[in-house]
Design a protein that fits this description.
The complex is a heterotrimer of chains A (666), B (77) and C (182). Chain A has 29 helices and 10 strands. Chain A is an alpha/beta fold and 666 residues long. Chain A has a domain of 222 residues: Rossmann fold. Chain B is built from 2 helices and 5 strands. Chain B starts with 10 loop residues before the first strand and ends with a strand. In chain C, the strands form 2 sheets. Chain C has a 6-stranded antiparallel β-sheet. In chain C, strands 7-8-10-9 form a 4-stranded antiparallel β-sheet, with helices on one face. With 182 residues, chain C is α+β, with helices and mostly antiparallel strands. Chain C folds into 2 domains: 86 residues, Ribosomal Protein S8, Chain: A, domain 1 (2-Layer Sandwich), CATH 3.30.1370; 85 residues, GMP Synthetase, Chain A, domain 3, CATH 3.30.300. Chain C is built from 5 helices and 10 strands, in the order E-E-E-H-E-E-H-E-H-H-E-E-H-E-E. Classes of the chains: A alpha/beta (666), B alpha+beta (77), C alpha+beta (182). Chains A and B meet through helix 3, helix 8, helix 13 and strand 10 of A and helix 1 and strand 4 of B. Strand 10 of chain A pairs antiparallel with strand 4 of chain B.
Chain lengths: 666, 77, 182
């Protein structure tokens, strides 16, 4: 999280001819914050061709001239690359070899422009003022490229707070290039930078290029820092003291478990009253439509397809929003790095690392921000493996399905030991999802080799900060708007299409009477229409695939429609059930029986079938949005395709296993 | 003595890397500021034993035993 | 390895100020230097050299550019700084002082003066004396003169800790380096 994104796959063809700035810096230099501040929420996210590295490009206006393009290059410590991310930076800055296709034949049909990445016109080199000794080496290397640069100093407020010191004019003289300070969160913080960017054609260059030999560079850095009166900041005492508690073996672990517990409590209890309001709201809206619209098909369309379908999903919006807020706040304070630190050993057992835990945790709200959170992992292999496992975390979209099925399976008051029966099953589903996600990620990590050197584990511990309201709000809005976009586009469309397919072809009275249907009874007509609709034909056509799991054509339609988004399953079943029993659709579901075939007469939603269905939904990849994000983050269709196939296979086999086990034990 | 051998609060000076270290690992350690002559302090260990947070120069870094084992140090002060 | 970096000299594109640790060399005019650096002086590629307490000033011959020769000079300088005893430097406190002072006045302090309508000029008035003349608006503003003078002295002392004010006459400052030092 932390990256504003806009739509999918960014095309840069519109940006040809505009002046290009590239932002370069180490991973902890505050690049993302600066990039977001410069380009607002108008950045496009895409991919570098053929690699699992996200690409951010945006526009900004400097005074009244043409807009300029700003590209946020991947974080890098130096121009001696040891990962695909760093290689990208080297390639982009390689002024000698531009125009050449340096990614070889590895294009995977990526969406935008087959052209190589454009060389920037000017560079903004971001240096964290508190780690200057380490980061000046990057400046020396970048100056070898000959591109005009402006150094941007971040965290100067932190430097001052920690009794550090830096004479910026002296640093400017010593480096021979413009040096600008930016302070995050201050209104005028960017004024100096914007002015400098407007004058990029007249940026000064050093009279003599800095040395290239590592020992000489170190001496050069010493000299520059000495003449800039650089005073190293003290240890961040505030962070040290907080970590003494938060990372304490006993207290720290307790705090962590408590945080996790609170996190999951939010999903169920905290959001419940809010959900109630949303539900009531939609119910009222549905009644209103039914009462006032005289056109029966339109009324049915609006209340069932639109309000019913979309409404049942939006009920979960408060929950999702709350989860995103929690994640954003935790990240903003710096606590998530501590969580990654605490969980690293556990994750290492699975061949992953602590930051993968954070990505998987984010997936509990929705896999989309979770997959985007994999950007924090330095290793491309880790990113991919985590991405493949993230959709298995129990996301909010599965909840309507789980809740529906569990309520059919177990009556409201049932108990297992001292706990609520339904609660236990839900917990088990969450736990199983988490464990499966870890196992799958571990397997992918083990068996995929993206080539390239082995990346060692390291993690910089950022200082604790009070999260900025604006940043938290932006992150929450990004995630929530992605969810809303999914609802209003994918779910809406799927639900409407389904509604159409379930209600076509229309049957004339003569036809109905000939089939023995009582044309006077709306219910009977509706039931017949649905049973013989286009959707039903499709559902019946795929019966051979799902019959071993005990699914009939009605469940099949539900599953097929939920390939767009899981929530559609509930809407679909709701429509089918409402056709049979408009007053009590839930009762209709419980009473449904298999219509024909060897199991005719059996209750459709009996325990083994429900078990199979729950397990199926646990494992199958039923979310076009997730597929889209995976494609964007991994750079090709190959990985989402693999994910879809393996998850379908797992879902089918484990669904069958669940059915068999439950049938034997129930 | 390696970085992995430091106790809580113990300070040391980095001497170099062991011979078995991978070039990519060596590069990353260098980038992170773990260069000969720099002072490091062991700050704390994770509850499960790994990783360990070190103060390296001006900032804190978490490293696993596998990496800190490769860095030779000598005691400071 | 000795800490070294190059800084541009505002008014003089043929000059580069090489900043080094204080006291690496005695201050004064460079007569000769060891190794490759010495050769560069001998064949005229380097037309002049001056040492102040924290930097070495080197001038390239008019037809040469730092872009082309900078790296080579840097390597030569680095090598030569390893053997400070092999340099021959004749004391020239006045010249050093004049050079340091005008450099400073080409920079931020001078900008400050000029932005208020004043002017400042530097002249070497003796083997070890430098005169700084404030003019323009400064002539008619006693208070401004005071502020400017103390700011000027502060900045100069930062670069040249041994600086003393020898005389002050209205808007003219006479400066010298303490005897027996630098």
């Amino acid at each position: 999280m932390g990256h504003a994104h806009h739509g999918g796959g960014g095309s840069t063809t519109a940006n040809i001819g505009l002046k290009r700035f590239a932002v370069v810096g180490s991973p902890n230099s505050g690049k993302t914050t600066l990039f977001n501040a410069l380009t607002g929420l108008h950045a496009k996210t895409g991919n570098y061709p053929g690699v699992t590295v996200a690409r951010f490009e945006g526009r900004m206006r400097l005074d009244d001239r043409d807009p300029v393009v700003v590209e946020d290059l991947p974080g890098t410590y130096s121009l001696d690359p040891i990962s695909p991310d760093e290689q990208i930076v080297v390639d982009v800055l390689d002024t000698d070899h531009h125009g050449a296709d340096h990614h070889g034949a590895d294009h995977h049909g990526s969406d935008h422009h087959g052209a190589a990445v454009d060389v920037p016109d000017a560079l903004l080199v971001l240096l964290n003022a508190t780690t200057l000794r380490r980061s000046l080496g990057l400046v020396a290397q970048i100056q070898q490229t000959g591109l005009p640069i402006c150094v941007v100093l971040t965290f100067t407020d932190d430097l001052a707070r920690r009794q550090g010191r830096l004479d910026v004019p002296a640093l400017t003289r010593a480096l021979g290039v413009p040096v600008v300070t930016v302070v995050a969160g201050r209104r005028d913080g960017l004024a100096d930078l914007r002015r400098a960017m407007a004058e990029s054609d007249s940026w000064s260059t050093p009279v003599v290029a800095p040395p290239t030999d590592p020992a000489e560079v170190t001496a050069w850095i010493e000299s520059v820092l000495a003449s800039s009166d650089y005073q190293v900041p003290e240890v961040d005492h505030r962070t040290r003291r907080i970590d003494a508690v938060v990372l304490h073996p006993v207290i720290g672990t307790a705090i962590f478990l408590l945080t996790m517990f609170l996190f999951f409590q939010t999903i169920f209890t905290v959001a419940a009253p809010l959900q109630g309001y949303v539900e009531a709201g939609f119910g009222w809206l549905g009644d209103l439509v039914a009462a006032h619209l005289d056109i029966p098909w339109l009324s049915a369309f609006l209340s069932q397809a639109v309000i019913g379908g979309v409404g049942s999903v939006l009920v979960f919006l408060p929950q999702i929003a709350l989860l995103f807020v929690l994640i954003a706040v935790l990240e903003g304070t710096g606590y998530l790095a501590r969580a990654a630190f605490l969980m690293d050993r556990v994750m290492a057992r699975a061949g992953l690392e602590g930051r993968a835990f954070v990505a998987l945790l984010s997936s509990v709200a929705c896999a989309i921000p979770g997959i985007m959170a994999t950007r924090s992992l330095p290793s491309a292999r880790d990113r991919l493996a985590t991405m493949m496992g993230a959709p298995l975390m129990t996301c909010a979209a599965r909840l309507p399905v789980y809740i529906l099925l569990v309520s059919i399976l177990l009556p409201a008051g049932s108990r297992i030991g001292p706990f609520s029966g339904r609660g236990v099953v839900m917990f088990a589903l969450y736990l199983l999802g988490a464990v499966s996600a870890m196992l799958v990620a571990a397997v992918f990590k083990k068996f995929t080799s993206r080539g390239g050197p082995v990346l060692p584990f390291y993690m910089e511990m950022p200082p604790y900060q009070v999260p900025r309201l604006k940043t938290v709000a932006a992150e929450v809005w990004t995630a929530v708007s992605a969810f809303l976009r999914k609802v209003t586009s994918i779910i809406m469309v799927a639900t409407v299409v389904l509604w159409v397919l379930l209600n076509l072809p229309l049957r004339g009275d003569a036809e109905l009477t000939a089939a023995g249907v009582d044309t006077g009874s709306e219910t009977a007509v509706a039931a017949y229409v649905i049973d013989h609709s286009y959707a039903a034909s499709v559902g019946k056509a795929v019966e051979p695939v799902f019959a071993p799991l005990g699914f009939d054509w009605r469940i099949n339609i539900g599953i097929l429609s939920s390939l767009a988004a899981r929530e559609v399953f509930v809407a679909t079943l709701g429509q089918v059930a409402a056709a049979e029993n408009p007053e009590e659709p839930a009762a209709a579901l419980t009473a449904m029986r298999v219509q024909d075939g060897p199991q005719a007469g059996r209750l459709l939603f009996d325990a083994p079938t429900i078990a199979a269905l729950l397990v199926f939904f646990m494992y199958a990849l039923q979310c076009m949005s997730t597929v889209g994000v995976m494609r964007r983050e991994s750079g090709s269709w190959k990985w989402p395709a693999i994910a879809f196939c393996y998850m379908f296979a797992l879902a089918w086999m484990l669904g069958l296993a669940a059915r068999t086990v439950v049938a034997a034990l129930w | 003595m390696t970085l992995a051998d430091l106790d809580r609060g113990q300070r040391a000076i980095v001497v170099g890397y062991s011979d078995v270290v991978e070039p990519s690992t060596a590069r990353r350690l260098f980038d992170l500021g773990l260069v000969p002559g720099v002072e490091v302090t062991m700050i704390r260990r994770a509850p499960l034993g790994d990783p360990v947070i070190f103060q390296v120069g001006d900032y804190e870094i978490a490293l696993r035993g596998a990496q800190s084992d490769c860095i030779t140090v000598e005691s400071a002060g | 390895m000795i800490a070294l970096h190059a800084e541009r000299v505002a008014a003089d594109p043929q000059a580069v100020r090489w900043v080094m640790p204080a006291g690496s060399l005695p201050a004064g005019r460079i007569r000769s230097a060891p190794g490759r650096l010495g050769e560069l002086f001998a064949d005229g590629s380097l037309s002049a050299g001056l040492v102040e307490s924290t930097a070495v000033w080197l001038w390239l011959r008019e037809d040469l550019s730092w872009a082309a020769h900078g790296t080579g000079v840097q390597a030569a300088l680095r090598e030569a700084l390893d053997v400070p005893n092999n340099w021959i430097i004749e004391p020239a406190p006045g010249e050093v002082l004049a050079r340091v002072t005008s450099d400073l006045l080409d920079g931020s302090v001078g900008d400050f003066i000029r932005s208020h309508g004043g002017s400042v000029s530097v002249a070497q008035v003796g083997p070890d004396l430098v005169s700084v003349q404030l003019g323009g608006a400064c002539e008619h503003c006693p208070a401004a003169g005071q502020t400017l003078r103390s700011r000027l002295m502060d900045e100069l002392r930062r670069r040249c800790p041994d600086l003393t004010e020898v005389d002050r006459d209205g808007t003219e400052l006479t400066l010298a380096l303490s005897p027996g030092r630098g």
